[in-house]
Design goal:
This protein has 14 helices and 18 strands. It is of the alpha+beta class. The chain folds into 2 domains: 155 residues, 2-Layer Sandwich (Copper Amine Oxidase, Chain A, domain 1); 236 residues, Zn-dependent exopeptidases (Aminopeptidase, 3-Layer(aba) Sandwich). The strands form 3 sheets. A 6-stranded antiparallel sheet has the order 1-4-5-6-7-8, sandwiched between helices. A hairpin with a 3-residue loop joins strand 11 and strand 12. Helix 6 packs across helix 14 and helix 11 packs across helix 14. It starts with 8 loop residues before the first strand and ends in a 5-residue tail after the last helix. The relative contact order is 0.12. The site of zinc ion has 6 residues, from loops.
């Protein structure tokens, strides 16, 4: 959590917005039903992308809003509900739910422009009692169909999802990331066994397992050969797929190493800035080491302030990632017996940082343990590892697709 930078916060109240539209500053009186029936929001088009101007939104709907000029992050308020967006980001958090768009919030001539998908996602969660329709050049937002106040004892409207939304929220692709590659061998174990070789074999076996079991889901490999791929690029590959209008899963496969050669077993990780324990922190540090092999000019992105800001948007992704990690570990226990499960842990893995989807990192065993290293080189064992991970992914998708959002 970063300290709040109050001095930079520009509170755009109704009255400030009224600098341009005067009637907004008039005392708040109930509008006549005919005037209040609907409001129109022009569609702003830039390079075939469609946006709603934040200014139009605030002015037309009298939304309370704040915008932090340093972080470029803004909030929209309605009663106890809040939506958070950030310039440069294609995700927003609306009343606890993550909404995504294919392109980011942008600024043009001083105006903040919200992509259509984010506008709809944020608006529908702040105003579940209103409908949005669109015509060629504008959105129309209607008032509630009846004037009766919402019954708060009934399930919240925001939990109601129409079939089109639900389809969009389904898992449509899985990104399988074989750790390391090329001039980055990863950990090196007994008999000069390289981590990058084992991760690729298991990744290919997982690819086959998923293609056979989930014919309707796209499987994407970050690498299919012995090539070097920067950590940030791996999640870029995954995030690009979000444009296909479905959600995805990111699974990164690794082999652990320890100076204590007796340590063996497998574990799953999800991203957190607070590691489970010192051991989890060490594992993450080991996996993050590869950045020294990367192009210096690209390295800055890992330390970017934006990362911390982005974390604010990822509470939902973290919950989903924790469930994914848990489900995979449970299924691995079944296929990898008698190998030892070491639990679900959290740590700050750079490779997971950029993922805008449930993401997990699986450490399939210890390359520094003589017995386990030998097992890991066997195709039959690699298939068992892959089947465990694959079954976990399948179980997770079943849960995810029947759930609107994981609470
Ligand atoms: Zn690794």
């Amino acid at each position: 959590m970063t300290p709040r930078r109050r001095h930079g916060t520009l509170r755009l109240t109704r009255c400030l917005a009224a600098g341009l539209i005067v009637f907004i500053c008039l005392p708040r009186t109930p509008l006549s039903p005919s005037r209040a029936d609907s409001v129109s929001l022009p569609i702003v088009r830039i390079d075939a992308r469609e946006y709603v101007s934040l200014h139009d939104l605030v002015a037309a709907l009298r939304i309370d809003t704040s915008f932090d000029i340093i972080t470029q992050r803004g909030k929209l308020y309605r009663d106890s509900r809040v939506a958070v967006y950030q310039v440069g980001f294609a995700v927003a958090l609306a009343n606890g739910a993550l909404v995504r768009a294919a392109y980011p919030v942008t600024r043009k001539n001083g105006e903040v422009l919200i992509p259509e998908a984010l506008f709809r996602g944020m608006f529908s969660r702040l105003y579940p009692d209103r409908d949005i329709t669109r015509a060629e050049s504008a959105f129309t937002v209607t008032r509630p169909r009846d004037g009766t106040p919402r019954d708060r004892t009934k399930p919240d409207d925001r939990d109601r999802v129409d079939p089109a939304d639900r389809r969009k929220d389904r898992i449509g692709f899985i990104v399988v990331d074989a750790g390391h590659g090329g001039h980055d061998p990863g950990a090196i174990g007994r008999g000069r066994i390289k981590e990058k070789t084992i991760t690729l074999k298991v990744a290919r076996a997982l690819e086959r397992h998923l293609r056979a079991q989930l014919p309707g889901v796209t499987v994407i490999m970050t690498r299919t050969g012995d090539s070097f791929i920067e950590l940030g690029r791996r999640t870029e590959i995954a995030n690009r797929q979000l444009k296909s209008n479905t959600n995805g899963i990111f699974v990164s496969i690794h082999v652990n190493a320890s100076i204590a050669r007796r340590i063996a077993g497998f574990e799953t990780y999800f991203l957190s800035q607070n590691p489970t324990n010192e051991e989890a922190r060490t594992t993450a540090a080991l996996e993050n080491n590869v950045v020294i092999l990367e192009d210096r000019s690209r390295r800055k992105s890992y330390n970017d302030v934006e990362y911390v800001e982005a974390l604010m948007l990822t509470t939902q992704i973290q919950k989903e990632s924790a469930l994914l990690s848990k489900t995979i570990l449970r299924e691995m226990k079944a296929t990898m017996r008698p190998a030892r499960p070491r639990g679900v842990k959290k740590a700050d893995f750079f490779v997971l940082r950029g993922a805008l989807m449930p993401a997990t990192l699986v450490e399939i065993g210890y390359i520094t343990n003589a017995g386990e290293a030998q097992q890991l080189t066997r195709p039959e064992y690699q298939r068992r590892v892959a089947a465990g991970i694959g079954n976990g992914v399948i179980e997770f998708i079943k849960k995810y697709n029947t759930m609107i959002k994981i609470k």
